[in-house]
Amino acid sequence: MLRGPIRTVVLRIAAVGAVAQLATVGGCAASPAPPAATPPPTEATADEPAPAAGETHASDTPGASGPMPLVLGAEASFADLVAAAQRAPSAQAAQAAQGGGGGACLLAHAEGSYGLGVEPAPAASTWPQPGEASLGSAPGPGRVLTAWGLVGDSSEGPLFMAFTPLPASAAQAVGLLVELDGPRAHLRRTDNAAVTGDALDADAVALTVVEQRAQGNPTVYVAASARTALRDLHALLHRLPVDAAVALAVALPPGSTMPAAKPSGKVPARCPDGLPEPAQDAAEGELPREQLVAAIAPLKEGARGCFESATGEAAAGGRVVVALRIGARGTVDEACIASATLGDAVLDTCIAETARQLRFAVPSPRGIVDVHLPLQLAPVERAPPRAVCP
User: Fold this and answer.
1) Is the terminal CB of the chain with fewer CB neighbours within 10 Å at N or C?
2) Could you give the C-alpha distances from 26 to 8, 9, 22, in angstroms and in order?
3) Coil, helix or strand for 15?
């Protein structure tokens, strides 16, 4: 039987530029890193829409503010913007996120032209087209599907999909839905808190947003009917508080269902009760902390790769404890997930399989060594894009 404390190494992994923090044997887990930017968007599978009305390329428009992927004319509508976002090449859109106006913004504007200033981050593989405004008449709290998961606990009520980036912290906050229909908008929260049911102009919407933020700082999701002019959308976005977390969204048709979770295809490697008991005659080995630290370096990189493929709420990060049994020859005899807060069986299995490939020095004295590795998985925090630029 094994005797003595289980050797514990604390490993913190970020989605970009992984950093290892190694505690003393028997130490506790590192504090969680702040939640982070939006994960990579799911590839759209909808048929390519027809060119938007009044659409030109950025190079064709004098004075365009930064390298926008597409520029829409002065009479363009919200439907045109959504259609343009569906066709925006990733490379051009990424350039736009680094473009003029001091950084990324949701809606770029210059000399009567408009364009999406960020790379789209849709929450579903198929993009819906906007239709008629519905928030003013639909009952129940609003719901928003983001790349981080669903905002709002109601099983009914109007459903929207965000298609621009948000940090995980913003996507986990209560949402305040704003749906424009021309120059006026209706508002709805994703919880049961009261908000005016009247149609408001841009100034009144901005004032309401300020009042709502004083009660809990909700994330603002701005949608619009298909016919809403981009000048009306720009007027609204321009009036919102500059430090508000804002995303553009589109209404989903009634009866839309949530995306199904991806099957793992494998039995999750979980061991909530810990590693199995070793053989009665198994000798207990020892490994110096320095050798343990050196050997787990591949797990840091491998777990980062596993985490980068996480979707939904799991992509926001969390804690995973990997249990290892190192054999007398330095190979991993057992590897499983003792506990995890992310709720993603595919991610758990990927990390466990990566841990099985680790190679350690031969224990001295020879024997088995049990190790618990708490991993703190957290993507890198980035500020949400500004609502408009300039």
Assistant:
1) N
2) 5, 8, 11
3) coil
List the one residue out of 242, 273, 320, 296 whose CA is nearest residue 30. 320
One-letter amino acid of 343: G
Range name among 12-26, 124-138, 262-276 with the lowest pLDDT average = 12-26
10 or 173, higher pLDDT = 173
pLDDT greater than 60 at residue 97: no
Percent of the chain with pLDDT over 90: 32
The CB density around residue 273, as the number of other CB atoms within 10 Å, is 8
Q: At what angle do helices 345-356 and 297-308 cross, to 10 degrees?
A: 160
Is 349:297 a contact under the CB 8 Å cutoff?
A: no
Q: Is 20 exposed, middle or buried (0-12, 13-18, 19+ CB in 10 A)?
A: middle
- Statement: residue 191 has pLDDT above 50: yes
Q: Quick one: tokens of 19?
A: 């950093």
Contact 190, 170 (CB under 8 A): no
As beta bridge partners, residue 319 has: 376
Residue type at 1?
M
Q: Which two tokens stand for residue 229?
A: 């002019």
321 three-state secondary structure: strand
Write b or e for each residue in 309-343: b if 16 or more Cβ atoms lie within 10 A of its Cβ, otherwise e.
ebbbbbbbbbbbbbbbbbbbebebbbbbbbbbebe
Mean pLDDT of 310-318: 77
How many other C-beta atoms can be found within 10 angstroms of the C-beta atom of residue 211? Answer: 11
**Where do the domains of the chain lie?**
7-38+261-378, 55-260
CB atoms within 10 A of CB 93: 22
Q: Using N-to-C axis directions, what is the helix angle for 230-239 and 78-87, rounded to 10°? A: 90
Give mean pLDDT, residues 108-119: 85
Under the banding of pLDDT at 50, 70 and 90, the label for residue 309 is low
